[in-house]
Amino acid sequence: MSAPPLPKALAFDVFGTVVDWRTSVTRESAAFLAAIGRSDIDAAAFADAWRGQYIAAMIGMRKSGRDFVPLDVLHREMLEAALRERAIDPASLDEELLADWNRAWHRLDPWPDTVAGLTRLKERLPIVTLSNGNVALLLAMARRAGLPWDAILGADVSGAYKPDPRAYLRTAELLGIAPGELCLVAAHHGDLTAARACGLQTAYVDRPDEYGGAPAPDAHYEQTWEWSASSLTELADMLGC
């Protein structure tokens, strides 16, 4: 088979693809659980429960017709729900503690190959975010982790959460290119499936540890993507960067 044409820009999913949310949120949650005297709660299970509401929150936004709110707001609602599931009343906790706990998603660590891989890819192609995160969250994360984006585009830019087609098509529009000239880089087959349906090129990056070794919830969406790599540095090799 002939190699696919090189895209004009790369757009990246962030949570799980670029940063290791589970390890980071587990670490942060362990500290906050200790601060409220609940070290008996498993921090990794808490992180999974917090993140586990994510897909339902995205679906709920679309089905309810709720006006768009940034991911920071949804993360806070999900945090409070996870606390209530463990018989902790969020109203009993200090507001600044809750706000800082919610900002754990601003302080996620990159995967070991991320910065080197992005830096190499950027030498040849523009690299931007195509994330459900809001700009403020993604900016704070990028500055802390040294992520060298050319542009930070959050869901608050498109006004839509993936897998809504508007999220993918608006990104291409903002970059002044056709959808087929934009490649989504993601560790999630469901995300890539939605991007392909919008005409984008696709690059899969395997992150087997995203869920602590547990199977990915969207594995059944797997297809043959234009590119498939085990790291961002391997993707850079594939794209001649």
Automatic annotation (TrEMBL):
Keywords: Hydrolase. Belongs to the HAD-like hydrolase superfamily. S-2-haloalkanoic acid dehalogenase family. NCBIfam families: HAD-SF-IA-v2, HAD_type_II. SUPFAM superfamilies: HAD-like. Catalyzes the hydrolytic dehalogenation of small (S)-2-haloalkanoic acids to yield the corresponding (R)-2-hydroxyalkanoic acids. PANTHER family: HALOACID DEHALOGENASE, TYPE II (AFU_ORTHOLOGUE AFUA_2G07750)-RELATED, HYDROLASE, HALOACID DELAHOGENASE-RELATED. It comes from the Bacteria. It catalyses: an (S)-2-haloacid + H2O = a (2R)-2-hydroxycarboxylate + a halide anion + H(+). This is (S)-2-haloacid dehalogenase. Its EC number is 3.8.1.2. It comes from Erythrobacter fulvus. InterPro entries: 2-HAD, HAD-like_sf, HAD-SF_hydro_IA, HAD_sf, PGP-like_dom2, S-2-haloacid_dehalogenase.
